[in-house]
Specification:
The complex is a heterodimer of chains A (258) and B (204). Chain A has 258 residues and is of the alpha/beta class. Helices cover 36% and strands 25% of the residues of chain A. The two termini of chain A are 16 Å apart. Chain B is globular, with a radius of gyration of 15 Å. Chain B is 25% helix and 33% strand. In chain B, the strands form two sheets. A nine-stranded mixed sheet of chain B has the order 2-1-3-4-13-12-11-8-9, sandwiched between helices. In chain B, strands 6-5-7-10 form a four-stranded mixed sheet, covered by helices on one side. Classes of the chains: A alpha/beta (258), B alpha/beta (204).
């Protein structure tokens, strides 16, 4: 046992993290080389039925191209699933956040939108509550340290990781999505050192993502204290599904929803 | 089964209506106090801050409509902030007077000494059934989805379930024709669907 059962903490979370592009799901490697990954509503319905603890849907074109987020796809997904749904991508102002919530999102994920205008975190938290505001943090390793990364430019950001994490939470972020960009789609395993670094700064839930290649990687990260894991590649391009994932983790003595 | 979903502008009306459909209900979403007053069965959803929610409920004249439906014995279900607003006092972003159906206050989750307790409380937690039996909450389903920073404390004898996240606190209450829960049945997959089915069949 790894403590959770005795402490009665929530179950570890497995969260399909799915990318939306041109009305379809897509999956790439390090934010490039995207391949088609199916119809959003159909795939999400399957994940919900197979026991996804939540679903994270990110429109990867909206902030890149400055275009409107795909609220139509969001609405179709929301109608098909019975678990919480977080939507991100192009959430640059309160009006768009409102439209996402109206279309069926339970939470929104602000990544570059929050970096560009940190006040937006406060504005959203005051209206929808901190629990509905997730801040996405993309991180790369450069020169032996972690740096914030802007996927629109492909460059690192001058703001420091530790400062930004603390600022995001004090402004009202109720949850952090932490993505190790170097590992994204590479199947090298999760970066629990990065998780520990952010965990030392804040007490809100953290979803760790990037690098899961097999089920041992998920179990190892959970045993190292990362209780919520985002899964992309593993669910998209392998024969794994969430029923198998949960059974594997339960056999490893990890607390998952039953 | 017709069920009236009260829309006061706070949140996930769509999710709640979808879940009611799946459970075999016919949701009618309204912000009209007269329709709430004459509703056969009522769901009061809610996400966000309880203080803002109670203000919106009063501004829409929905507080009196809810009171009169409750007194007429119509089955009522409050979800998350829709449970919190039933209390006397709400301590979220200031001090607000709630509907006062429940003797209690709504205050921030106290993570206590344990460094592993996260706030907000987000995720699937196992609930403990109370001594008082519930008609709406089944005995078989234990995992439900929570997403909140505040919770109800000091309720008297109406708890039907508690959850241990930091200090244990009440996560579902039931009395007369009123059921309310802090977790989200509309987001709790099949466990939530079964709860909603029982609420739709409830004849208090």
């Amino acid at each position: 046992m790894h403590g959770n059962r005795e402490l009665r903490l929530p179950a570890n979370r497995i969260i399909p993290s799915l990318l939306l592009r041109r009305g379809r799901l897509a999956k790439g490697v390090r934010f490039a080389d995207y391949r088609d990954a199916g119809a959003p509503a159909t795939i999400c319905r399957a994940h919900s039925a197979q026991g996804a603890d939540e679903i994270l849907l990110l429109d990867i074109e909206a902030s890149h191209d400055g275009r409107e987020s795909d609220f139509g796809a969001l609405e179709k997904v929301a109608a098909e699933i019975q678990v919480p749904l977080t939507f991100g991508g192009g959430m640059t102002n309160l009006d768009r956040i409102h439209r996402a919530i109206e279309a069926g999102a339970d939470k929104v994920c602000l990544t570059t939108a929050a970096l560009d205008r940190p006040d937006l975190i406060e504005e959203a938290a005051q209206v929808y509550g901190a629990q509905a505001v997730m801040v996405g943090i993309d991180v790369v390793r450069r020169d032996g340290d972690y740096k914030l990364y802007d996927h629109r430019t492909g460059w690192t950001v001058s703001k420091q990781l530790d400062d930004w994490v603390g600022e995001a939470v004090s402004r009202g972020a109720g949850e952090i999505r932490l993505c190790a960009v170097d590992r994204e789609g590479t199947r090298q395993g999760l970066d629990t050192t990065l998780h520990d670094r952010v965990r030392a700064r804040v007490n809100v839930p953290i979803i760790l993502e990037g690098g899961v290649g097999d089920l041992d990687h998920v179990a190892a990260a959970m045993k190292a204290g990362a209780d919520s894991i985002g899964l992309g590649t593993l669910l998209v391009f392998s024969d794994n599904n969430l029923v198998k994932v949960r059974r594997f983790l339960a056999n490893e003595g990890l607390k998952v929803r039953s | 089964m017709k069920v009236t979903v009260v829309d006061y502008g706070a949140g996930n009306i769509g999710s709640v209506a979808n879940a009611l459909w799946r459970a075999g209900g016919e949701p009618v979403v309204t912000s009209d106090p007269d329709r709430v007053r004459s509703a056969e069965r009522i769901v009061l959803p809610g996400v966000g801050a309880a203080g803002a929610a109670i203000k919106a409920i009063r501004a829409g004249g929905l507080d009196q409509a809810l009171d009169s439906a409750r007194k007429a014995g119509r089955p009522f279900m409050g979800i998350c902030v829709g449970m919190q607003v039933l209390a006397d006092e709400l301590l979220e972003f200031g001090n607000h007077r709630g509907l006062g159906w429940v003797r209690g206050i709504v205050a921030a989750i106290d993570p206590g000494e344990n460094k592993s307790v996260r706030v907000p409380h987000i995720g699937w937690s196992e609930i403990d059934l109370g001594a008082k039996r519930s008609s709406v909450l089944g005995s078989r389903d234990r995992y439900f989805y929570f997403c909140h920073s505040f919770r109800l404390v000091r309720d008297e004898g109406i708890a039907v379930a508690t959850v241990a996240h930091g200090e244990p606190y009440t996560c579902a209450i039931e009395f007369d024709n009123v059921f309310a829960c802090q977790f989200h049945p509309e987001k709790s997959q099949i466990a939530g669907q079964r709860l909603i089915e029982r609420f739709l069949a409830w004849k208090p």
